[in-house]
């Protein structure tokens, strides 16, 4: 009986991606029975991304940024593939450890941490953590004397969709004073990190940031064994990411060779989030209402409860090409008038009961969703091809 159940699960997980999409959207019974939005998470896509990462950035070990999408199937798959993990809180560390990841594969990459979270990291043997100010050092010295510290520096993030350096990272003028403070507190500093901002559009931002990190390594005359460079996140991950990713990688590899050559003994890691998960998730949302205004505005079930990330562009209903299109507004389901997904979108006429598919919904969506008004959050269906299943001997 148990075996039968397992077999059934295996078959469900092993369905091929395109078939899954087609099946879910065309299944009459599914459409009649449910209005709840759902994601299909294509775990093969994570595998493909990982292969590309290893091939393109061979010197950079990825520590997946859990904040971007903490779906357990995603963490398990990446753990199977061998990535490390960037956690930002006690909860993220708990999750990752509970899924079998070992503490040395985790970097606690939040520069401002509640004291209780630092204590938790200490008890669980998570030693690597970032900091960018003196107050953080005082907390760490009180709670985690074995910590291996990584100094986060502020870098130019002007070419990124989501800027981080106003809130995080220390300015060059403060670096020396902070490192002296580490010495006084007898804390170990092992390296430097930065983040060029999420949704970066300019490869040269990485080059400049790597050069900035080199300056920090060079000004450290305090006897620290600096051996880690963490180049953060910011890498593209949506459909068609390849060209931009290859361009970024070329610039990063050249900058690493120039400022941190392989024989420098410096280990290089990164904290990609969006890169791994963005294209792996497709969201299906049900149209539960429609309002025609002057014959050209369509109101549909939107996605407030699954939260759209800043960089989203594509929403489409499954329809034949060549149909007449109408200027439409896509609204979310809630009572909040800010709950608008797109202001203007040209789409074929949709009917109540139709389903819309939205690609590239893996990054900062599931994790930021809310159940405001008690609308259901989207279910998540992870799928994996039989080939990948067998390759990793999953069960
Ligand atoms: N690392 C840190 C410290 C971050 O704050 C973020 C995103 O905010 C990431 C990594 C992941 O960035 P991305 O999704 O752009 O790769």
UniProtKB/TrEMBL annotation:
The keyword Lyase applies. It catalyses: L-ornithine + H(+) = putrescine + CO2. It is an enzyme of class 4 (lyase). The keyword Lyase applies. Its EC number is 4.1.1.17. One of its GO terms (biological process) is putrescine biosynthetic process from arginine, via ornithine. This is ornithine decarboxylase. It comes from Sphaeramia orbicularis (orbiculate cardinalfish).
């Amino acid at each position: 009986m148990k075996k039968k159940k397992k077999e059934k699960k295996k078959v469900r997980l092993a369905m091929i991606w395109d078939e899954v999409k087609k099946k879910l959207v065309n299944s009459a019974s599914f459409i009649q029975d449910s209005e709840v939005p759902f994601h299909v998470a294509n775990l093969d896509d994570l595998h493909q991304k990982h292969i590309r990462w290893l091939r393109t950035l061979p010197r950079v070990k990825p520590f997946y940024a859990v904040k971007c999408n903490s779906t357990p199937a995603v963490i398990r798959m990446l753990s199977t593939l061998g990535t490390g993990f960037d956690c930002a809180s006690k909860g993220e560390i708990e999750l990752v450890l509970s899924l079998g990841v070992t503490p040395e594969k985790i970097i606690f990459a939040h520069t401002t941490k509640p004291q209780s979270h630092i204590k938790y990291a200490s008890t669980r043997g998570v030693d690597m953590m970032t900091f960018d100010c003196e107050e953080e050092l005082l907390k760490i010295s009180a709670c985690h004397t074995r910590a291996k510290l990584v100094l986060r520096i502020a870098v130019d993030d002007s070419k990124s969709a989501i800027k981080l350096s106003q809130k995080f990272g220390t300015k060059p003028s403060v670096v020396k004073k902070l490192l002296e403070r580490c010495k006084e507190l007898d804390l170990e500093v092992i390296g430097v990190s930065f983040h060029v901002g999420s949704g970066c559009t300019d490869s040269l931002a990485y080059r400049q940031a790597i050069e900035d990190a080199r300056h920090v390594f060079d000004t450290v005359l305090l006897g620290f064994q600096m051996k880690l460079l963490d180049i953060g996140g910011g890498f593209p991950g949506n459909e068609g990411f390849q060209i931009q990713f290859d361009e970024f990688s070329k610039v990063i590899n050249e900058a690493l060779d120039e400022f941190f050559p392989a024989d420098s003994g410096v280990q290089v890691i990164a904290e990609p989030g969006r890169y791994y998960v963005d294209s792996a998730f497709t969201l299906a949302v049900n149209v539960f209402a429609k309002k025609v205004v002057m014959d050209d505005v369509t109101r549909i079930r939107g996605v407030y409860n699954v939260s759209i990330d800043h960089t989203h562009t594509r929403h489409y209903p499954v329809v034949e090409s060549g149909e007449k299109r109408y200027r439409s507004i896509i609204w979310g389901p809630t009572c909040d008038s800010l709950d608008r997904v797109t202001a203007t979108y040209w789409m074929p006429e949709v009917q109540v009961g139709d389903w819309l598919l939205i690609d590239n919904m893996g990054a900062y969506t599931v994790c930021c969703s809310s159940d405001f008004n008690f609308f259901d959050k989207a279910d998540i269906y992870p799928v994996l091809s039989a080939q990948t299943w067998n390759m990793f001997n999953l069960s």
